[in-house]
Structure formats: structure tokens, C-alpha cells
Design goal:
Shape of chain A: elongated
Mean pLDDT of chain A: 73
Largest sheet of chain A: none
Largest sheet of chain B: none
Radius of gyration of chain A: 16 Å
Strand content of chain B: under 5%
Mean pLDDT of chain B: 84
Radius of gyration of chain B: 21 Å
Low-confidence stretches of chain B: 1-8
Strand content of chain A: under 5%
Distance between the termini of chain B: 65 Å
Structural class of chain A: mainly alpha
Helix content of chain A: 40-55%
Number of strands of chain B: 0
Largest interface: A-B, 34 and 52 residues
Order of helices and strands of chain B: HHHHHHHHHHHHHHHHH
Helix content of chain B: over 70%
Oligomer: heterodimer
Order of helices and strands of chain A: H
Number of helices of chain B: 17
Chain lengths: 43, 361
Amino acid sequence: MSTTEKSSPSGNSNSLSLDWWAVIVALLLALAVRFDVLKNVPW
Amino acid sequence: MASSTSLPRVGSDNRLLDALGMVPGVLLLAGIGYAAKILERSVNAYAKAQHWTFPNIEYVLWAILIGLVLSNTLTIPKVFQSGIATYEFWLKLGIVLLGARFVLADVLKLGGISLVLVVVEITLSLALMTLLGRLFKLKPKLTSLLAIGSAVCGVSAIIAAKGAIDADDEDSSFAIAAILALGALSLFTFPAIAHSLHMNDVSYGLWAGLGVDNTAEATAAGALYSDAAGKVAVLAKTARNAMIGFVVLAYAIYWAGRGQAERVTNKAAFLWKKFPKFILGFLVMSVLVGFHWFSKGQVTSLGNLSKWAFLLTFAGVGLRTNFREMSQQGLRPFIVGALGEILIACLTLGLVVGANRIWGL
């Protein structure tokens, strides 16, 4: 089972830091879009 | 002094190597995702040109299918593994960015309805899985893990609970295998049932968010129906994920009371530690859009970035689903999981139909 989340003996999971990374990257992308560094992203 | 300055360098070198090691897998995810987009366009165009009656197969399904075929027919080289595992990061990134496509009022309305349904769903699922686990004489902690996995959010919940209730590695891999196998099946069954019932996008999205356990599969199951349904499925699933801390805490207290797990001393810190922080990012994006911080074109760009992130996720869902590996995990937990999931799917469908009557979704 491949997953980026792994549990430590105390039951903590490093998914928390993954969560924060996702938030940080998303906010950076949002800033880039807001200030037109990234324009008209195609789909 | 020398050693104290050289240690962080080694750490950062390792981190750089780890990041570089992810590149091949991420490129594979992107390649599969892009191939899925091309297939969607070209197959549909070809069918139209030939005047064939051919179902419109969306990029979501193509991405999952290509991943499934690759992982079940070939041995994926090790060099790709760490990059493939980043699919969860792309999922969370996609969800945060998706916040830009929700007006805060919608988040509050649909999120509020979802939360009410989530509380009912979690209560029913926990009771049902516990009952089935006892009927089939599964080990009590395996039953707890299956109950948490099916009630809250699949793999993440099982991993979060494993340490908290001091469960065996074997039990958690059984529970994870059962949840993943059933998640893969729900990708095909949920949209088919919804089409036969002519469900609207909001109702179906709520059902997928409540009934499919793993966040990646719930997002994919929603997107397979329609773009709008995918959005609602993510919102409902996010509301469900927000409850993870409370459910895991309740189980930790239960097992600690029986002397079979560590006692939780600081409950508030425990809840914060287990809370999925990406939900905060989702809400921040929605608030920023609510305050008109982005133009209409910029919101579209953010929505498209979210779709690209999800595209990599869907490729990862296919690639990490290995039926051979799952079949080796034992039949009894799978049967309990399957029975539970079928009943939960029926219950959540009933809940959504009821909510539709009350709130007119």
C-alpha cells in the first residue's frame, strides 16, 4: 500500500506537514495568479 | 562546531535527493494524466466523426484506467514509487485550490447540510461496522480500524487511529486493503447507480462524499459523474474528514480505558494534531474569493490549476490499486468491509434522498 502518510509509534502522522505543504503551495499559486505571474491557466 | 554546521547540510542534501527522487514518479503521473486528456478528446471526436453511439468517457476514467492497467500488468520500477506516492499531495493541493470555486455562502449551506448528514452517517457506520465485526468474529482492534475507516475518511483515518489505539501493523494493512479495494469498486458502481436513479449533481455529489471512504476515490467518483458533482463530493468529504479527530479520540479513550492504548492527556492538542489542516486552506481560498480578491478570469485559472492537481491524483489512484496485492490480504475483513460498505451506501443514499426532500438540494 503506497501512501505518503506513515504513522509513528505515537500515532502521529506526517500527513499534517503534507497538509501544510498543500496549503502553502496553493497560497503561492493563488498569489501568482492574483498578481498575474500565472495568467489564463488553460485546461 | 564543525559537526554542528555539517549536520544540517547532510539533512538538506538528503531532502534535495528525496525531492529529486520524486521527479520520475511525478512525471509518470503527469504523463498518464495528459494521455487521459488526449484520449478523452480524440476518442470522443473519433466516435462523433464515425457517428458511433459511444459513451462520453471523461479524462478522470481514462487516467484511472491507464493507471490500473499499468499497475496490474507491469511491475512499476522502484524509481517511480516515491513520486507516485505524491498523489496525496496533489489531492490536497487540488482541494485547497478548489476552495476558489466555492462562494462562501455555498460552503456554509452545503457544508452545514453535509455536517448534519456526516454526523448521522458516522454514527450509523460505526455502529454497523462494529456489529458486523462482532458477527464475523474479527479481532476487536481490526473491527475498530474498519469502523473508523468506513465512517470517516478511509486510509488517513486508519493511519491516524493505528497509533492512537495501538493496533497491529497486520490489522491496519488488512483494514487499508479492504477500504482501498472497496473504494476502487465504488468508482464504477456509484456513478452507474446514480445514473440509473437520475440523481441530480448536488444529491449525487453529497452521496459520493458521504458513501465513498477514501478522499481520492470520493473526489474521482464525484468527478466521474460531472464537474459540479465532483465539487460537491469534495465539500461533503471534507466535512467528513473534519470529524477525524473526534472519532479517533473517542476510540483512543475507549481502548485506553481497557488498558490497551496510551492515555490521551491533552484532548485539545490531540484534536488539533489530527485535524486535516488543508481544510483551513480550502476555507481561506473561499473567503478570498468571497471578498472579490480575484477577478473572474483569475478564479477560472485557480479552478483549472485545481483540475490539473486532481488529474495527477486520479492517475495515482489507478497506479496504486493493485488487485493482486489486495487479494492476498485475506477474505474475512474484505467481506465485513464489503457488507458494511453496501449497507452504508444504501443508508447514505437514503439520507441524501431525505435531505433532498427537506432542503431541496
